[in-house]
Amino acid sequence: MNQRVDIVEVGPRDGLQNDAAELSIAEKVEFIHRLDEAGVRRMEAGSFVSPRAVPKMADSAEVFRQINRGVSQSRIALALNEKGVRRAIDACADEINFVLVAGEGFGQRNQKMSPQETADMLAHCAPLAHDANIPLSATISVAFGDPYDGDVDVAVVANLAARAQRAGVAEVGLGDTIGVATPWQVRDVFERVRLEAPDVFLRAHFHDTRGAALANVYAAVEAGVNIIDASCGGIGGCPFAPAATGNVATEDVVFMLERAGFDTGIDLDKMIETAKWLETILGHKVSSSLARAGRFP
Ligand code: COA
Ligand code: ZN
After folding, report:
1. Which of 53, 125, 126, 128 has its Cβ near the most Cβ atoms within 10 Å?
2. Helix H segments across 132-197?
3. How many whole angstroms separate alpha carbon 123 and alpha carbon 279?
4. Ligand 1, closest atom to CA 85?
5. What is the CATH number of domain 6-289?
């Protein structure tokens, strides 16, 4: 059997939180169901943050209520404080992904917390998820560079991962929120994190702001990471990161990995079709290469 790389689709959350388009709840639900049809098994379906901070995610509870639920699909809720974790539990999320930050500048603007305060908050909230029997993961945002403070110390990232592991988190993602990582840095940072948090599964989250996202996926897979975040069409970005652009596109990642013999479980044709459908809903082109060029052969 081919080596497996699992995709976590983040389009309905990271993608839609930053797109200018105003999608109705029905359109968000249809997007999620189309992604299911394309073979997605884990997906960030919404976030439970302040509606004033991120208005586009204000309707996440209703989206969670309306989407199909089943044992084969894991609907992930993003949260970054106690109120968010409680709302995610109320929405019967299958998993909660908690946001840690590796940089002070971004941390204050995104969630009004320092890196260590985000880890304190995670330790405070983890028992809530645990008591509700909901698996908890964490994404360390700006792990490769902070838009306000510049370079991020790898020791801070590794320490946050170790603190997440101690809090009982099963999976830690490293987020390149502003698309500044290089493949060599990806290798080094994942290696360091693995040393200091050896018991967690590792996940990679890259934005393609400066064109290196696919190369970074390659580097992460070479470093032994087999869970990759990606968004259909390559839509998205963070409202608190200047000039943010979308995640690496799911169809581009799937194309690259499947051509190389990895198994992702994603139906590439259906993912491209969903990216093209998304263009009609968003009212603009998406940025993925596969939506433009089509598959081969
Ligand atoms: N869900 C809904 N509302 C929330 C909330 C949550 N998770 N957390 C806080 N709020 C509400 C509070 O109830 C309060 O409402 P009120 O003014 O009507 O009483 C208001 O937000 C301010 O609460 P406070 O605790 O003072 O928050 P803050 O102003 O210090 O902001 C965050 C901190 C974390 C709430 C806010 O920065 C945030 O939600 N950021 C999200 C950033 C994000 O999602 N980025 C993209 C993904 S990484
Ligand atoms: Zn992101």
Report:
1. 125
2. 154-166, 183-196
3. 40
4. 7
5. 3.20.20.70
pTM of the model: 0.98
- Ligand 1, atom 13: nearest CA belongs to which residue? 50
How many Cα atoms sit within 13 Å of 16 on the Cβ side? 30
Give the pocket of ligand 1 (CB within 6 Å): 17, 47-51, 53-54, 80-81, 83-84, 87, 99, 110-112, 141, 238, 240
DSSP 58-87: TTHHHHHHHS---TT-EEEEEE-SHHHHHH
Residues with CB under 5 A from ligand 2 (ion): 14
Give the position, in ligand 1's atom list, of the atom nearest the Cα of 110.
42
105 and 111 Cβ atoms separated by less than 8 Å: no
Domain boundaries, the chain: 6-289
Question: For 99-116, how does the pLDDT look when each residue is reduced to its tens digit (9 = 90+)?
Answer: 999 999 999 999 999 999
Residue 249, both tokens: 């596109």
Tell me whether residue 232 is one of the annotated catalytic residues.
no
Residue written as tokens 């908050």? 121
